[in-house]
Each structure stands twice: as structure tokens, then as C-alpha cells.
Amino acid sequence: CGGPGSRAASHRRALCTMVRGAPSSAPSGAPPLPPLPASALQTLLVLDVEATCDQPQRAPHEIIEWPVVAVDAATAMPIAEFHRYVRPTEVPQLSPFCQKLTGIAQADVDAASTLDVVLAEFDEWIADLGLVDRATGTHLQRWALATDGPWDLNSFLARECARKGIDERAHLRQYVNIRKAFVRSHKLRTLRGCSLDAQLSRIGLKFEGRPHSGRDDARNIARVLCWMLRRRSVHCLSINEAADPAVPGRYIALSYGVGGGVGGTLVVRGPKKARGKKAKAERAADEAARERALGEAPPTAAVPGPDSGGLVVTAEPAVAGAA
Questions:
Q1: Which of 65, 114, 168, 319 would you call most buried, defined as having the most Cβ atoms within 10 angstroms of its Cβ?
Q2: How far apart are CA 101 and CA 288, in angstroms?
């Protein structure tokens, strides 16, 4: 994250910490990993948010923890972390259920910044990592966020940004769904039953830390990602989902070719009630509108390069249990 003599060293020390004790490093004496495909992602930022919750849930969810683990795809190792608690503004008081589940105390969020400020600090951290040019916003590497499912960015972030009028950056709308990548890399037939614990168990690992701690969840998701990266699974080397720009809370399944062209299927896998109830003409109009909207923030925002043009509609089989 930069040497002690760099211009932004103090800021980097405040925002960026190296991952300690991460069990995802390559085994001692292992041969070097093969090079990545030319158009593969170079850095993945594993995110797992925590949000306000209660039983029953009456108020909208608000993000209260924003933890990220940066993973270098070439070495298949975590390289840095970003962590912030977030102060909720719609319902500032955390429920006893939420505090017990997440381990986040009321004092943690009371002392924290609001979501808009945390996102701005996250942007600074991304620039500190050398992923974007601070002055122009130009991407300097091929990188993307990575999550365990679509919920963090679609169900939580997109809806909260829409309610509060917060700018939802282009790089927060396209991501690698690690759960989907894991299912496809293992040739499984469904996403059902493929929880984080199940993924870890399948590769011979156990969850480390506290479940529902955003930081510990993100670190364990990063362990799964590093396992796949060491095996050069192409499924985790390209963006495979994007937030639906037409409807906050829904997402679009994308299919990007690693080492070739870029394509995306405009297939909405959102709430079941939204499926199959529109006439063909209305559905075609919706998909055209989404394609135009995505064209305003095309895949080049996260996967720049000569092979990453606008969206091209391609065929992609549905994965059972994606909703």
C-alpha cells in the first residue's frame, strides 16, 4: 500500500492494513502459478456488508459495516484490507437482535461515519491501492468487487443509495458473484445449499472467526476465492453479475469471456413475482432500456482493455436457485 516515504503514507496507514494470518497463501515450495489470461481481472475486492436487522424486520435495512479484503489474482493472496463501521440514519438504534447477531455494539456505529462518507473513504483507498487514477477516475488495473451472492450490492447497497440519494458508483454496480463462480467451477447444478460454510467444507477448510462479523465473513470468502485462483478457475476471473439499473434490488446475470470478447445476458433473476408476467414486447423494451443504462457505465469501468466493448447479448443457461 505504499512505502513510509510516499506522499499519502499517513492516509494509507489509516485506511489500509495488511492481512495477517490469512490461510490463503500458497503452500511452501509450491511451483509458481501460471500466468493469468490476458483479459482476466488482476485484483478482486472481496466485500461482505452487515446491515441493520431485527425479528421481525420492520424498517429498511441500513449498512452498518463495510469490510473489504483485496486479493491479488496473480499470486492468489490477500494483500490489504479496508474496514469501516457505518452509522445508520433512518433507525439509528441497533436492535438487541442485531447486536447479538453481528457483534457490532451501539457505540461502534455511533462513532462511525455515514454511508456516503464511508463510500468516499473507500474510493480513496481504491486509489491508494493503485487501482484508479485519483485525479481522473481512470482505471489503472482490471479489477472488480467480489461478493458471496448478489445481496450485498443489490439488496442492501442499491436500495439504500436509492432511498438516500447517494451516488452509487459504477464500480459498485458490477461484480464477481463468488458463490456462482464456485458452483460453476465445481460443476454443481444449483446454488442452493452452497453457503459459505458449505463452500469451505467442500475445499477442506473451516470457517475462521465469528459468523456474521463482516470482517471475518469477508476474510473467509477471500479464502474460497484464493483457493479458486490458485487453480486458475476462469469463473472467478471476470465479472458475472451487475445491479439492475432499472430496479434497485434486482440484478442481471452477465457472461464475460476471459481472454476473448465481452458479452452479457440481460436476464433478470430477481424476485419471483417479477418473472414471466410481462408480454414479449414489454420485456424486450425493458431489456433494451437496461442495455442502454448499462451502456452508460459499461463493463470497461471494471474490465478495461481492447476486448471489453459494449454489452453483447449472448445465451447463458440459467443456474437453479439464483434468486
A1: 65
A2: 42
Cell of 62: 441500513
CA 29 to CA 260: how far, in whole Å?
33
Residue with cell 408476467: 277
Cβ within 8 Å of residue 181, ≥6 positions away: 228, 233, 235, 236, 240
C-alpha cell at 177: 458473484
Residue 53: closest CA among 14, 7, 99: 99
What is the pTM assigned to this prediction?
0.74
Q: Name every residue whose Cβ is closer than 8 Å to that of residue 302 and which is 6 or more positions away in sequence.
A: 41, 139, 142, 143, 144, 170, 171, 174, 239
Strands 50-51 and 63-72: antiparallel
Alpha carbon separation from 262 to 87, 158, 269 (Å, rounded) = 38, 24, 20
Count of Cβ atoms closer than 10 Å to residue 33 Cβ: 15
User: Are the C-beta atoms of residues 242 and 252 closer than 8 Å to each other?
Assistant: yes
Contact 267, 316 (CB under 8 A): yes
In whole angstroms, give the CA distance from residue 253 to residue 82.
Answer: 27
For 92-135, where are the alpha helices, taking DSSP H only?
Answer: 96-102, 106-110, 115-128
Q: List, for residues 31-52, the tens digit of each pLDDT value.
A: 788 888 877 899 999 999 999 9
Give the SS3 label for residue 174: strand
pLDDT in tens, 164-207: 999 988 889 889 999 999 988 888 877 777 899 999 999 999 99
Predicted confidence at residue 190, as pLDDT, reads 74
Nearest to 236 by CA among 197, 151, 179, 171: 179
Active site residues: 50, 212
Task: Give the pLDDT band (50/70/90) at residue 93.
Answer: very high
Say if residue 241's pLDDT is above 70: yes
Burial call 297-310: b when 16+ CB within 10 Å, e when fewer: bbbbbbbbeebbee
Number of DSSP helices (H) and strands (E) in the chain, helices first: 9, 9
* Type of residue found at 255: S
